[in-house]
């Protein structure tokens, strides 16, 4: 009996193992003749994949390769961008008319809260991590990140974080979404008042936020260690690329800012669930604001510095020359990093804090505008008289600069106390920061996505669709958010689901702008997915012809080596195929046209007037 | 040593961070001389320590990074940023003269056009 039982178990286990092996073999086979979308990313490293990595889903679940993790972060970030974007589309539709028609006020508040948190923590930080994971090791000549496994853990904390943050929207009995806004001000977020903020949905959201903070901190430690210790010996502080500089600074900011958010969140959770009184006692509400904004302001620079790095890297490649005043950009990046910790109370000018304190925060806030302006001048000067090529990534870079100017200038006005007291908590503030988070940060993300598209997919995107995406985004952004600036001047308060009829026209224009943005992003998704699957294969390791201007950076050199070691496989035929789904036949007529987006220099005069 | 590291060029690069430092200093002096809200030990202390802390930290980081960058400029070959590991890329000082000549050549036509466009 005993023996038989054991035997049966052994046989069962054997069958199970054989089944697993067979399944793996099948997946392997299947992959070798149809590279899957994700796998296609490293399509030409396939030999390498089958040597060291399992295939199919298992590979993505177990990978510690910085490039794979970069792709995972990117996919995660884009999904979150879609979720957050659709949330705000619903809000904008509600705001098309002054009354509460489409959704309830409480649901509006829920969407508002989730939109902010999703965009900042689940899209912004991860999409930056996508670029930094993929490209920092390539740019600095490292084999991988310093701690590849920590890198993987940091990513895998994010999906549960998203589930927790969105938990309130799932059909779970008795759990409703948080309605605290992304700033989670107490006493509302501590559960006080007649609202329903004592609900577990808020607790789950706080836990999710905490998890995303842990993830960001782990990533930051990893990047600091990598950039300090893993550089190729030829890569010194004097020739470290600008994107690595911004990631290094960003990681420093994360290291000091996120643990503080974590602590504040824990205190809030204790207040909510264990009867502590951190934020309930006298001064508790202002304590929360201090803690939150000591994190919150650095957070906005955590989000904007790496995009600035991407633009500083990409923009000169299409201006045919090196970044003007490279070291100015490096030092001003570091300056922003330091100063961003000395400005937090400019978010609290209207709270009635001591006027002397307020004044000093105004001083530092005005000082921090200088390094930002310096960068802007450097970008413009780089383009000035340059050999501009208006490719899609370049268009997004120029859009970035243009939007950043408006976002930055509106910010400087807010930094002035008397102006802020008028405009605080109006749509002006919403306009200000959306010019930066959408107009600049997301634009730089798109610039990076298009610029490196040939590198991580091995294929080329559809040029015309890229341009449509840009122009719809540019027009949509400026329509939506400039109108918000005007609404703010008119005194329209932010965070309301309803409004006075006098604001209707401007709100409707903003809604139209948001729909234009939506149309642009749908084109982007189509272009991205379709080109990744079927776009013409890139055969040139330097699709943007950077070497012509001596501007070829390390990651493209890596790509070139990868292409050369890959087995040649009927690339021409692929290019033919792509025209079926592609927009313009002539795009893929010849292999050099594959990179036609980088091809022709465009009249500089156009660009100069763009600015 | 320090004076060797911080040559004229480096100092020039660092001016970019002098500007915010001067702005902060301006306000420190300004609030010290003219303080409409009066003086109170705690809040005035905080007021100045925020600005002074920002000033000191920025000065320190600027100094340290300037030292690291200028230092490795002295000791190592300097390639164009991000291009060090690309074969065939010349170090900056070698190609300097060459690049300048090239720029003059290719920049001419464009420069005229652009000047016309923006004038
Ligand atoms: C040029 C430097 C900048 C200055 C001087 C500045 C100034 C300000 C000020 C004073 C406020 C508070 C307005 C109020 O609530 O009354 C504010 C809000 C905000 N800024 Fe900026 N800003 C700058 C750059 C940025 C950047 C680069 C970002 C984003 C990456 C950003 C994102 C935000 C956000 C998200 C808020 C709103 C926070 C909230 O209340 O929900 N700002 N800014
Ligand atoms: Cu701020």
Automatic annotation (TrEMBL), chain B:
Keyword 4Fe-4S: no
Region of interest (Disordered), ranges: 96-119
Chain ranges passing through the membrane: 12-34, 46-64
Biased composition (Acidic residues): 100-113
A Pfam match: DUF6684
Signal peptide (UniProt feature, chain positions): none
Top-level division of the source organism's lineage: Archaea
InterPro entries (UniProt xref): DUF6684 (IPR046506)
Protein's UniProt keywords contain DNA-binding: no
UniProt keyword list: Membrane, Transmembrane, Transmembrane helix
Protein's name in the database: Cox cluster protein
Species for this entry: Haloferax profundi
């Amino acid at each position: 009996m005993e023996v038989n039982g054991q035997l049966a178990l052994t046989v069962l286990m054997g069958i199970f193992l054989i089944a697993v092996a067979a399944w793996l073999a099948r997946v392997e086979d299947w992959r070798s003749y149809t590279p899957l979308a994700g796998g296609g990313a490293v399509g030409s490293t396939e030999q390498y994949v089958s040597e060291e990595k399992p295939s199919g889903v298992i590979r993505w679940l177990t990978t510690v390769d910085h490039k794979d993790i970069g792709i995972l972060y990117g996919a995660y970030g884009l999904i979150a961008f879609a979720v957050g974007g659709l949330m705000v589309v619903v809000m904008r539709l509600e705001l098309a008319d002054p009354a509460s028609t489409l959704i309830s006020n409480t649901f509006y508040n829920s969407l508002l809260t989730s939109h902010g948190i999703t965009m900042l923590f689940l899209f912004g930080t991860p999409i930056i991590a996508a670029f930094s994971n993929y490209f920092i090791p390539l740019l600095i000549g490292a084999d991988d990140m310093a701690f590849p496994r920590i890198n993987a853990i940091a990513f895998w904390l994010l999906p549960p974080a998203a589930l927790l943050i969105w938990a309130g929207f799932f059909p779970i009995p008795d759990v409703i979404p948080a309605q605290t806004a992304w700033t989670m001000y107490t006493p509302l977020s501590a559960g006080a008042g007649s609202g329903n903020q004592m609900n577990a949905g808020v607790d789950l959201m706080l836990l999710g936020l905490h998890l995303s903070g842990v993830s960001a901190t782990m990533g930051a430690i990893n990047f600091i260690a990598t950039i300090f210790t893993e550089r190729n010996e030829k890569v010194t502080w004097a020739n470290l690329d600008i994107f690595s500089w911004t990631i290094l600074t960003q990681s420093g900011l994360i290291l000091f800012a996120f643990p503080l958010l974590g602590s504040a969140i824990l205190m809030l959770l204790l207040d909510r669930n264990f009867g502590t009184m951190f934020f309930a006692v006298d001064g508790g509400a202002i304590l929360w604001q201090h803690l939150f904004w000591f994190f919150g302001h650095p957070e906005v620079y955590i989000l904007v510095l790496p995009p600035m790095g991407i633009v500083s890297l990409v923009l000169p490649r299409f201006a045919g020359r090196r970044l003007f005043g490279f070291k100015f950009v490096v030092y001003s990046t570091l300056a922003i990093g330091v100063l961003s910790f000395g400005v937090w109370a400019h978010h609290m000018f209207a709270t009635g804090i001591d006027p002397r304190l307020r004044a000093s925060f105004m001083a530092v806030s005005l000082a921090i505008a200088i390094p930002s302006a310096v960068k802007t001048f450097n970008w413009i000067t780089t383009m000035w008289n340059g050999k501009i090529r208006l490719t899609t990534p370049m268009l997004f870079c120029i859009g970035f600069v243009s939007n950043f100017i408006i976002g930055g200038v509106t910010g400087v006005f807010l930094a002035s106390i008397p102006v802020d007291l008028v405009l605080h908590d109006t749509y002006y503030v919403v306009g200000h920061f959306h010019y930066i988070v959408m107009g600049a940060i997301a634009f730089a993300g798109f610039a990076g996505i298009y610029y490196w598209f040939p590198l991580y997919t091995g294929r080329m995107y559809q040029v015309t669709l890229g341009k449509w995406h840009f122009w719809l985004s540019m027009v949509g952004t400026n329509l939506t958010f400039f109108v918000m600036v005007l609404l703010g001047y008119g005194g329209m308060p932010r965070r309301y689901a309803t409004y006075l009829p006098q604001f209707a026209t401007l709100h409707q224009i903003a809604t139209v702008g948001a729909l234009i943005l939506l149309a642009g992003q749908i084109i982007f998704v189509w272009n991205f997915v379709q080109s990744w699957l079927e776009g013409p294969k890139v055969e040139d390791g330097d699709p943007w012809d950077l070497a012509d201007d001596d501007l070829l950076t390390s990651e493209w050199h890596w790509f070139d080596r990868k292409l050369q070691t890959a087995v040649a496989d009927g690339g021409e035929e692929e290019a033919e195929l792509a025209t079926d789904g592609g927009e313009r036949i002539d795009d893929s007529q010849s292999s050099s046209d594959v990179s036609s987006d980088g091809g022709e220099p465009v009249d500089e005069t156009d660009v100069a007037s763009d600015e | 040593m320090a004076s060797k590291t911080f040559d004229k060029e480096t100092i020039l690069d660092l001016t970019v961070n002098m500007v915010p430092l001067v702005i902060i200093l301006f306000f420190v002096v300004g609030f010290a001389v003219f303080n409409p809200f009066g003086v109170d030990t705690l809040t005035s202390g905080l007021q100045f320590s925020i600005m002074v802390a920002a000033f000191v930290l920025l000065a320190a980081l600027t100094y340290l990074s300037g030292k690291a960058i200028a230092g490795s400029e002295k000791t190592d070959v300097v390639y164009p940023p991000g291009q060090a590991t690309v074969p065939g890329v010349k170090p900056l000082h070698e190609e300097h003269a060459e690049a300048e000549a090239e720029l003059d050549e290719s920049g001419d036509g464009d420069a005229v056009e652009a000047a016309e466009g923006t004038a």
